[in-house]
Amino acid sequence: MTVRPTLIAPSILSADFSRLGEEVETVARAGADWIHLDVMDGHFVPNITFGAPIIKAIRDRTDKVFDCHLMIAPADPYLAAFADAGCDIITVHAEAGPHLHRSLQTIRNLGKKAGVSLNPATPESVLEYVLDEIDLVLLMTVNPGFGGQAFISSVVEKIRRVKALIGDRPIDIEIDGGVSPETAGEVVAAGANVLVAGSAVFKGNSEESYARNIEAIRAAAR
Fold it and tell me: Is the pLDDT of residue 127 over 90?
């Protein structure tokens, strides 16, 4: 089975929004592999963050992969806008619409990588019929909508089941929620290879602290 490299994807949800462009540049220099963009609509989740215009405005600040997690419903009418804004990976929630297969095909037809996200209570069986349409599975280890929540440990077994379901397909398994040096090793051992971290990365308000925080997560994941 192919071993995929472990990647750290800091979530700008925890960045200083008053200087978002600088924060993206800083965390990229500090060692981020991807930049994770948590888009929330106040409808699918109980919070509102930012949309495609903000992403487009910060796209020229780094050449890192823009990993866009759409916590919005419906998602389909906005996929082209997020592709146009410069997102490299666009992830939709399996729970957010009735036509998951169509959503994924649309993302790929836009020339982007397609991801599916599952809430903690959603069974991994929903992936079975779309495995050949996806590049990434994002497993929520908190309930979506807010940063800084406690890690739901029962999802670790779900990671193992998703890993088995994927087999040798070139699909990344991403974990979002409560990722820290305390939880990174556990989720990577279960099969995850992309770790989203918000507050665990952005505490400290300096490039040096971001770099230390990223390295602490990376070291714990080895």
Answer: yes
Q: How confident is the model over 183-197, as pLDDT tens digits?
A: 999 999 999 999 999
**Cα separation of 100 and 92, whole Å?**
8
> Which tokens is 83 given?
């592709």
**Secondary structure of the chain as H, E, C letters:** CCCCCCEEEEEHHHCCHHHHHHHHHHHHHCCCCEEEEEEEECCCCCCECCCHHHHHHHHHHCCCEEEEEEECCCCHHHHHHHHHCCCCEEEEEHHHCCCHHHHHHHHHHCCCEEEEEECCCCCHHHHCCCHHHCCEEEEECCCCCCCCCCCCCCHHHHHHHHHHHHCCCCCEEEEECCCCHHHHHHHHHHCCCEEEECHHHHCCCCHHHHHHHHHHHHHHHC
Burial class (CB in 10 A: 0-12, 13-18, 19+), 114: buried
List residues bridging with 172 in a β-sheet.
136
Catalytically active residues are 38, 176
Helices 207-221 and 181-190: crossing angle in degrees, nearest 10, is 40
- The mean pLDDT of 126-142, rounded to a whole number, is 96
Closest CA to 140 of 101, 192, 181: 192
Name the pairing type of β-strands 65-71 and 89-93. Answer: parallel
